[in-house]
């Protein structure tokens, strides 16, 4: 039971970090990243492959962050000349390409066989029985740091600039701001966070293969951001620890409901995510928590 | 070589139906419909249900599936897109992502994730002028061309087509001139869903029916629509054929499973160099 709870909480922390990344890119920056799972997968594989080849885990994680940040910025530049519709398809296309590349380039990634034996950080320092607990604490520390960092930059002038480019890029440009650079930065920071989430995934499972990375992550992240209210980081935390926790926890129902098998339950869960996402867009478009500095009713 | 071009042409025509559907919805409703892949999957499964479940021959099953699919599309329009009317394109886009997730998983819930095939007889490929031609390929060409001509006639020569073009051009002006927007939107959804269902059947005949099938086509479909200039329905068809041939010729140098990467490369290059599409006029794209 305890190990089940720990597993759920780690997954919630990972999904919430991904949702925070999306909240920065889409909520604050207005850039729809529909290829979250691709960057996440990239982070997991960079980290996992480096650890397996002997790099210390924390260093590997840092490299994964840098790699996903750089790649994210590059991808965002492809569609800078156009609107959000295109960015969504470009990121999705990129994610699919990452998945194909990792599935077929066996010399590098072992393809569908997957990468086994990824060592967790601090693995040598703590007794094996504590490993899960320590890792849970580590992922929550990552989540907390991501949250504090995002809150910091959101309240800094940079956050204002990002919101300005979202609300009216032309005006921001006319005021002498480099919209292109701002968008690339937003994507890079979000990408780094996805690298963190991906690394945690690799550490936690200690084995990665291409089938683990599905669009379910996309669905969770979009759900969390929409429930939160676009642009509110604290809202994402709340959404993560209520809705994602509830959804992840529903895996438990397999033992209780006899007439549904695991695959059906997974489908049902994602169906509810999809339908819920639409319902919130219709009935509660502002989400739970208003964006920072829009709270006083000035909007 | 000629074989590759021919195969590419057929692949392109296969992509053309959903690309046309996507561009139609984009031009009338002004948002990118990410549920297009799931609509294709849903259509294929509805037809599969009528074909294998009720034992109808494939043409009848396709007809029944198309009608049911159109009904579902109208229902989705009523439940999702009508309450969201007037919101920004991005909101609608995200809503369509939700619709896509919900539809795909509804299919998974009822039909499971196993791979299926339609109940049709397998026939030997024909040989013509040194080309190997499958019966499915002939069927694809015939059906797609018939569908395209029908859509073109509707678009060019009927009151409905004029109304659709008017709403696409300028919804407010169209409303002032007394064109019923709601009806035009409903018709657009019907046409769009019938095209998606047809595409689902053809894709299912070409390969298999599985819940992932529509998802695998999203990228080529969007690429084709962008190639033609999204929001320009007929050009999307040309874009699709061009993309199909490019993908097929690329197998000369790249492994066949990297087709998606070719589509992505084409799209990336296009967005960097000529974002309004090959046939679009700059500035009108959005």
Describe the model.
The complex is a heterodimer of chains A (299) and B (286). Helix content of chain A is 71%, strand content 0%. Chain A has 299 residues and is mainly alpha-helical. The longest helix of chain A is centred in the first third of the chain and has 27 residues, at 2-28. In chain A, 51% of the residues are buried. In chain B, helix 1 (2-29) runs parallel beside helix 5 (135-157), helix 2 (36-53) runs parallel beside helix 4 (89-111) and helix 2 crosses helix 8. The N and C termini of chain B lie far apart (38 Å). Chain B has helices at 2-29, 36-53, 58-81, 89-111, 135-157, 159-169, 171-176, 181-206, 213-228, 233-250, 259-273, and strands at residues 126-128, 131-133. Chain B has a two-stranded antiparallel ribbon. The longest helix of chain B has 28 residues, at 2-29. Chain B is mainly α and 286 residues long. In chain B, 73% of the residues lie in helices and 2% in strands.
Q: Key features?
A:
heterodimer; A: 299 residues; mainly alpha; 12 helices; 71% helix; globular; B: 286 residues; two-stranded antiparallel ribbon; disordered C terminus
Task: Characterize this entry briefly.
Chain A has 299 residues and is an all-alpha fold.
């Amino acid at each position: 039971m305890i190990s089940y709870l720990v597993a759920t909480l780690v997954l919630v922390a990972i999904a919430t970090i991904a949702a925070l990344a999306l909240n920065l890119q889409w909520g604050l920056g207005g850039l729809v990243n529909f290829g979250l799972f691709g960057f996440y997968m990239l982070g997991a594989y960079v980290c996992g492959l480096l650890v397996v080849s002997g790099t210390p885990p924390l260093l590997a994680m840092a490299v994964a962050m840098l790699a996903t940040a750089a790649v994210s910025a590059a991808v965002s530049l492809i569609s800078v000349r156009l609107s959000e519709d295109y960015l969504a398809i470009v990121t999705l296309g990129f994610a699919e390409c990452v998945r194909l590349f990792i599935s077929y380039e066996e010399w590098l990634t072992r393809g569908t066989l997957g990468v086994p034996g990824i060592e967790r950080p601090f693995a040598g320092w703590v007794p094996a029985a504590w490993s899960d607990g320590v890792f849970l604490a580590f992922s929550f520390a990552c989540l907390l740091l991501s949250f504090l960092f995002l809150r910091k930059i959101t309240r800094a002038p940079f956050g204002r600039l990002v919101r300005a480019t979202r609300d009216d890029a032309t005006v921001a440009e006319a005021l002498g701001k480099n919209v292109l650079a701002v968008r690339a930065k937003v994507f890079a920071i979000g990408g780094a966070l996805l690298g963190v989430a991906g690394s945690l995934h690799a550490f936690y499972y200690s084995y990665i293969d291409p089938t683990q990375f599905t669009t379910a992550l996309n669905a969770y992240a979009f759900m969390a951001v929409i429930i939160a209210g676009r642009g509110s980081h604290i809202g994402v935390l709340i959404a993560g620890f209520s809705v994602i926790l509830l959804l992840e926890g529903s895996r438990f129902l397999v033992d209780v409901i006899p007439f549904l098998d695991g695959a059906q339950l997974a489908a049902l869960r994602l169906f509810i995510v999809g339908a819920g996402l639409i319902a919130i867009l219709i009935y509660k478009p502002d989400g739970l928590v208003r964006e920072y500095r829009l709270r006083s009713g000035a909007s | 070589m000629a074989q590759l071009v021919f195969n590419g042409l057929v692949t392109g025509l296969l992509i053309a139906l959903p690309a046309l559907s996507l561009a139609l919805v984009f031009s009338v409703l002004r948002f990118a419909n990410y549920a297009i892949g799931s609509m294709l999957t849903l259509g294929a499964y509805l037809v599969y249900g009528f074909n294998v479940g009720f034992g109808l021959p494939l043409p009848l099953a396709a007809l029944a599936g198309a009608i049911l699919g159109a009904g579902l599309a109208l229902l989705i329009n009523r439940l999702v897109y009508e309450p969201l009317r007037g919101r920004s394109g991005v909101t609608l886009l995200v809503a369509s992502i939700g619709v896509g997730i919900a539809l795909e998983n509804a299919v998974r819930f009822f039909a499971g994730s196993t791979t299926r095939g339609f109940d049709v007889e397998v026939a030997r490929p024909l040989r013509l002028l040194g080309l190997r031609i499958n019966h499915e390929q002939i069927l694809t060409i015939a059906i797609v061309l018939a569908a395209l001509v029908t859509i073109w006639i509707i678009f060019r020569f009927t009151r409905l087509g004029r109304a659709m073009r008017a709403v696409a051009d300028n919804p407010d002006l169209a409303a002032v001139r007394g064109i019923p927007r709601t009806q035009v939107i409903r018709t657009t959804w019907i046409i769009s869903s019938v095209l998606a269902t047809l595409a689902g059947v053809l894709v299912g005949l070409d390969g298999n029916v599985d819940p992932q099938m529509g998802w695998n086509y999203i990228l080529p479909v969007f690429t084709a629509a962008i190639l033609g200039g999204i929001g320009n329905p007929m050009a999307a068809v040309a874009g699709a054929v061009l993309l199909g041939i490019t993908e097929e010729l690329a197998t000369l140098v790249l492994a066949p499973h990297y087709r998606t990467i070719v589509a992505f490369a084409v799209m990336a290059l296009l967005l960097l160099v000529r974002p309004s599409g090959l046939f679009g006029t700059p500035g009108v794209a959005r």
